[in-house]
Specification:
Blueprint: H1 25-29, E1 46-48, H2 69-73, E2 79-82, H3 92-100, E3 107-111, H4 114-119, H5 126-136, E4 143-149, H6 161-175, E5 183-186, H7 195-203, E6 207-208, H8 223-226
Parallel strand pairs: 1-2, 2-3, 3-4, 4-5, 5-6
Length: 229
């Protein structure tokens, strides 16, 4: 029987939060824990990036300065996927700022730079990876998974997942002893998500990231491979 996706109700009021909460954002960001409107026990709920076109004045109160966005965001969500790290490793001052603007229970997920996943595709990227991991280590206890987001590979790059897995294993073998590192992997080749791919993820304790797109199988469709049934 086909499983139906739950109905999602649209947001009817674009002004989500009361303006008087604005002055509390800085104080809450430094609290030990925060009662957030968008949270569920045992689940980290957040967005990809903490700002986008249209957010000021709707998600963020009108008049809030961009440098205050993250502090305010952290009072509403307990985690964020940092998308900007895909384009380049951030500066020390930037990462320090992320740490200081968020409460102790906040978690950052960060995309691994594209030079590693798209340009070099895990080969000859040791210096790039070491620089990125060193920078992310500044987040200390707030560092969550680092996302290896791969493009869709055509047959000229890899004929099959069987050609890709040895390269992935070699990479994961190198980073497995870096105790601060936790990785998640997102691949765009639907047919590659099979039992063999699942075994590699289990072997190295790597999470699978799924995007809500038509070409990606749903978790309940992969019950046998990933023991989700």
């Amino acid at each position: 029987m086909e499983r139906k996706r739950p109905k999602v109700e649209p947001i009817r009021d674009p002004t989500l939060f009361e303006m008087e909460k604005l002055e509390q954002a800085g104080k809450l960001a430094n609290s030990l824990s925060v009662q957030r409107p968008y949270s569920e026990p045992g689940i980290y709920l957040g967005t990809s990036a903490f700002t986008a076109a249209g957010w000021p004045g709707s998600f963020y109160p009108a008049g809030l300065r961009p440098r205050e966005f993250l502090s305010y965001y952290a009072t509403q969500f307990g985690t964020v996927e940092v998308d900007s790290t895909y384009y380049a490793t951030p500066s020390v001052s930037t990462v320090n700022g992320w740490y200081l603007k968020t409460p102790p229970d906040f978690i950052f997920a960060a995309k691994v730079p594209q030079v590693i996943t798209h340009e070099k595709v895990l080969v000859g990227c040791e210096e790039d990876l070491d620089e990125f991991i060193g920078r992310m280590d500044i987040l200390d206890e707030k560092l969550g998974p680092m996302l290896l987001q791969f493009p869709h590979f055509n047959k000229y790059m890899f004929k099959s997942v069987g050609e890709f897995l040895p390269r992935l294993r070699f990479f994961l073998r190198r980073v497995k002893d870096m105790f601060t590192c936790r990785f998640a992997i997102e691949i765009r080749n639907k047919s590659w998500i099979d039992a063999g791919f699942a075994d590699v993820l289990r072997e190295y304790n790597v999470a699978l990231a799924l995007t809500d797109t038509s070409f990606v199988p749903r978790p309940w469709e992969m019950g046998e491979q990933f023991d989700l049934g």
